[in-house]
Write a structure and sequence with these properties.
By secondary structure, this protein is an alpha/beta fold. 37% of the residues lie in helices and 11% in strands. It is built from 8 helices and 6 strands. Strands 1-2-3-4-5-6 form a 6-stranded parallel β-sheet.
Length: 219
């Protein structure tokens, strides 16, 4: 990235396999000559996800696990990511519920509520808001995300609307209509509706003229 290009907003994708969340690394980002703090960034949404195409190595971070020890380990990892806000202020942390193709289970749903309740309490003093992303599984469909937010009464939890995932799971207009009141951020990428290929917008099958019109209408 050209730090002199006048950019004042960036997103970072954080995963155990890609970056350490230790205090040493947090300090490095803030204090390095090309670090975000010195570059004048005012807002950095961090995306803390458990999987993406081509990213392998560490076990998935799953806040919906019914294994309590695994869930605690996942939350500890996410809290280390949140603590970066002390060095590099950011507004949002985007969180997945479950992993790819995970089936729905009431116990997982309850585990997710416990995890998110704990994480939102940890994030609030840091000035960070949690956003849940629609991903290709049965726990994080648009309907289930709305149900989760309404059932939990977590009024400070929003949604990161992933256009590519919406295209795979159903269609963009339908997913947008369900989630529009909760959308606080977006992920824009394309695919041919066959896999989560993360293509540049316009390189897959999404109707981008329609999609951008929808996004402009969001509250």
């Amino acid at each position: 990235m050209d730090w002199c290009a006048g950019v004042r907003r960036q997103s970072r994708f954080l995963r155990r396999a890609n970056m350490s969340t230790t205090p040493t690394v947090s300090s490095m980002f803030a204090n390095s000559p090309t670090g975000s703090g010195r570059a004048g960034f005012r807002c950095i949404p961090w995306m803390f996800a458990d999987y993406e195409r081509g990213r392998t190595g560490a076990p998935p971070i799953n806040v919906t696990s019914t294994d309590r020890s695994a869930r605690i380990e996942a939350m500890d990892e996410i809290k280390r990511a949140l603590e970066i806000a002390e060095q590099i202020p950011f507004r949002f942390l985007v969180q997945h519920l479950g992993v790819a193709n995970e089936s729905f289970d009431d116990r997982k749903f309850e585990a997710a509520m416990t995890s998110i309740e704990h994480l939102r309490a940890f994030a609030k003093p840091l000035g960070v808001r949690l956003l849940l992303e629609n991903i290709p599984n049965e726990l994080a469909t648009p309907d289930k995300l709305v149900e989760f937010i309404h059932t939990s009464h977590f009024d400070d939890i929003g949604v990161c609307f992933d256009v590519g995932h919406a295209h795979i799971m159903s269609n963009v207009p339908e997913a947008f209509e369900i989630l529009k009141d909760q959308i606080r951020s977006t992920h824009l990428h394309d695919n041919a509706k066959d896999k989560d290929s993360h293509l540049w917008p316009g390189k897959g099958g999404i109707n981008w003229s329609e999609t951008m019109q929808l996004l402009r209408s969001a509250p």
